[in-house]
Amino acid sequence: MADNARAKKLADLIQEVVAQKLLRGIKDPRLGTHVTITDTRVTGDLREATVFYTVYGDDEDRASAAAGLQSAKGILRSAVGAAAGTKFTPTLTFVADALPENAKTIENLLDKARASDAKVRETSSGAKFAGDADPYKKPGDDDEDDATA
Asked: Is the pTM of the predicted complex or chain greater than 0.90?
């Protein structure tokens, strides 16, 4: 079993090699420059690597990029093997990163919170306090209460 530092180092190398190969080495028009490698994780035994990617575009672009990555998997694994120089080259699995969808969900929730805050601010702009402006008793106020009683 390899240590975590070695797995992290190999993951960083795989991320860099795959990104460079996609940018310069693969001539598949489905991949192009709109595919971004966001993260790579390697198992502890250095046998399997999961490569996370995002695609700039719509659902059709994402589907074609996924198909392009699957077809280029062998070339990319060969490039990783040449760069890594390890006894066994990890198998590559490509997974679409959920980061853009999560960011969109968070952004929608923040917009909803901003709208709610604006509504509360608008409602409270003309409101007045329920009691006096200064509800605390002062030392001279006790004398007035005793005089009226």
From this structure: no
